[in-house]
Amino acid sequence: MKPLILGGAEIAPGSRATFHLPLGQLYTHNPISMPVHVIHGRRAGPCLFVSAAIHGDELNGIEIIRRLLVRPALNHLRGTLLAVPIVNVLGVLQQSRYLPDRRDLNRSFPGTEKGSLTARQANLFMTEIVAKANYGIDLHTGAINRSNLPQIRANLDDAETRRLADAFGTPVILDSDLREGSLREVASQLGITTLLYEAGEALRFDELSIRAGVRGVMNVMRAIGMLPPSRSKHAHAKPALAAGSNWVRAPVSGVARFEVSLGAWVKKGELLGRIADPFGEQEVDVGAPFAGLVIGCTNIPLVYEGDAMFHLAHFDQSRGIATRVEAFRNGFSDPAS
Questions:
Q1: In the structure, what pLDDT confidence band is assigned to residue 322 with cuts at 50, 70 and 90?
Q2: Which residues of 158-176 are buried (b: 16+ CB within 10 A; e: fewer)?
Q3: Residue 81: beta bridge partners?
Q4: Which DSSP string do the residues of 242-267 spell out, in sequence order?
Q5: Which long-range contacts (CB under 8 A, 24 or more apart) does 131-134 make?
Q6: 11 φ/ψ sector (left φ>0, alpha ψ -120 to 50, else beta)
Q7: DSSP 3-state assignment of 62?
Q8: What is the DSSP-derived secondary structure letter of residue 181?
Q9: Which of 18, 75, 142, 322 gives 265 a disulfide partner, CB atoms 3.0 to 4.6 angstroms apart?
Q10: Mean pLDDT score of the chain, rounded to an integer?
Q11: Residue 303 to residue 281: CA distance in whole angstroms
Q12: Are 269 and 312 in contact (CB under 8 A)?
């Protein structure tokens, strides 16, 4: 193994270190930086980046990376792990999805060295982290007041991406198009196999999502040869590949009552919820337009006409999907999971 160069510093094989990549200054002239933890193994292997909080209000990934870095198995790492728990530092400080210039970092890659605030931070992350990697895992959550069932989103046209999506171990995989300016799009152009993990809700820690994220990252590291095979007898069911997904939107404005929860399997026409006026004089049923799995839902009972309420994934082969979700949840019922 050769030394790794990051931020102008040299990291010797068999060592680990925390770096702070300069991001400029606050209004107060205080310096601000992007924290990066590097584990550079003694033995040759792939380079993997794991990133979180590209959207500054999505916090589960920060805790996933914290728990990942204290795993004893990383003492036997082959290759290099680049862990970036807070990419959008200014967004986290403001508890905001965006940077102060109101741009979405995950629509601003690869960025430019002399562009907007967001473009400069995108460029720094690409240059110092992503471009050094062979693989990447980007950790996300649902939006504010929306929860996502743990799921992998990836470009499944690529065989290696599909292999690692299966290895991660969520109950559902979505074949997701590459969006212009996204980290996944630019990483793909560089030949870097990248997964996007979605789980939980913005500005909240969700224990199931965090545990599943830690285990999933470890599973991928084993699949690419960075860690030895697990001795655990726990085996996750093969994830179900969704044929597509759609949001069920509120047909009217009002106060909603939900009849199904995240992870539920619903039949076509099944009652998902009801929307009523505050007096209960008028009430409208919200039904499932097709059979599918609830992979996302709003957590607020106040809805306007057209608001997204339930995110349903549909499948070509639906047999056993509800059982997979139940087994997935049961696999994390033990606090030691």
A1: confident
A2: eeebbebbbbbbbbbbbbb
A3: 39, 48
A4: ESEEEEEE-SS-EEEEESS-TT-EE-
A5: 131/190, 132/4, 132/6, 132/47, 132/49, 132/80, 132/82, 133/47, 133/48, 133/49, 133/82, 133/192, 134/46, 134/47, 134/48, 134/192, 134/193, 134/224
A6: beta
A7: helix
A8: T
A9: 322
A10: 95
A11: 17
A12: no
CB 318 within 8 A of CB 291: yes
Q: What are the backbone dihedrals phi and psi of residue 221, each rounded to the nearest 5 degrees, phi first?
A: -60, -35
Task: Say what the alpha-carbon torsion angle 107, 142, 198, 172 is, to the nearest 10 degrees.
Answer: -120
**pLDDT at res. 308:** 98
Predicted confidence (pLDDT) per residue in 109-138, tens digit: 999 999 999 999 999 999 999 999 999 999
Q: Quick one: which of 143, 172, 139 has its CA closest to 298? A: 143
Count, residues in the chain: 337
What amino acid is encoded at 105 in this protein? L
Match 């106060």 to its residue by tokens: 255
Give the residue among 247, 239, 274 at the shortest CA–CA distance from 260: 274
The one-letter code for the residue type at 330 is N
Q: CA-CA distance, 241 to 337, in Å (whole number)? A: 25
Query: pLDDT tens digits, residue range 45-98?
Result: 999 999 999 999 999 999 999 999 999 999 999 999 999 999 999 999 999 999
Q: Could you read off the pLDDT of 271-310 as tens digits, one per residue?
A: 999 999 999 899 999 999 999 999 999 999 999 999 999 9
Extended beta strands in 53-167, E state: 78-84, 135-140, 146-154
What is the pTM (predicted TM-score) of this model?
0.96
CA distance 146 to 66: 24
Structure tokens at 175: 């074949």
Closest CA to 51 of 89, 24, 23: 89
Query: Are 160 and 73 a contacting pair, CB within 8 Å?
Result: no
Q: How far apart are CA 309 and CA 159, in angstroms?
A: 33
Tens-digit pLDDT profile for residues 97-109: 999 999 999 999 9
